[in-house]
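HUMAN:
Could you generate one sequence with tokenized structure?
ASSISTANT:
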Amino acid sequence: MGSRLSYLAILSLSGFVTSFGAHIVATNLPAYAETVGAGAFMIGLLIAVYDFAELFAKPTAGFIADKRGMKLMLLLGLAVFIAGSLLFLVISPRLLLIVRFVQGLGAAALSTVSISLVARCFAESRGRAFGIYNAIKGAGYVVAPATGGFLAHSFGFEMIFIVSAGIAAVAFALSLLLPSDRGGTLDGDDDDLSLQEALRIFTNVQLAPIYAVIVINMFLVSILFGFLPVYLHGLGYTTMQSGTIVSVATAAYLLIQPVAGWIADRYDMRLTVLIGLCLAATSITLTTFMSGPLLIAIVIAAGIGVGTVWTNSDAWVGASAEARRLGASIGAAQSFKEFGDMVGPLLVGSLTQMFGIRAGFVTCGVIAFVLLILLARSQALRPSRVA
């Protein structure tokens, strides 16, 4: 048990590398843009290219990990992330786009494989393990903005990449302690997972409901953390008040994950996910009809809902995927997560631009409710107790 907990800590640190590395740069891009004379479009591009690299690299990394070994792919992902971070120190600052793309490739590999290894090592307590993993990974989103701001202000923008590389290097050294696993070969026999079979995982009937839940939950995540400040601004809240309320939602989102994982292990994983999705959809739909203490309460409920779905959807994929397709299945699920993360803000932004902020919130909530109805009528709700 002690060894397994040590492995979980190492894998969680790898997850932290991806979230910290993404947000420590993204939240400090305005200062960079002012230095090099870049505009708003370039800022958006620098944020999107990290997700774009992950969108396509994650299923590939999962496929190769299934064939050649997950530990090897984890170490490779960390090495690429370190190299990408240090690249900023030796090239022109105007080429940050290349740095972000290389970082995204490394993050795709280490994120996919660390999740896959959690699913593999904790088959009997998968929900709790993912709750801890995602809470530590999510901490990267919380500490990165302030840390990055301090580093950029005190030591210069390049220090952000030095610190990111340093944390990844610690994760790399600790990952060497993980047990070795033996993958297959890329030219194996007919029983081995082929590239064509890996691509079919994206349309796997058993996994399709989980993919749908992941995409819709990412819509809800994007509107909660991306557009709640817009609504609060319209109500006349100050920047300090708005930031405090968003931080409360973030805290609820993080703190519920270990608890939600324990509940899924104790009772039923699928049902826990769907209850969380129902709570998130209801809360998001009602948000723009609230103000004052009721608004804070509904925002906390939304954070609890999306956090419950976030951590247990990963565990759900791990429980449903075939063992020899675990990495590829996790990679596909993570690609759907990135897809939802990119499309969600575009959908909400378009609806808000055309019809107002309430239309964006309500539409996303209704879409989630429709998905719940479809799942309730399908075979996806068959009892699945994970002890």
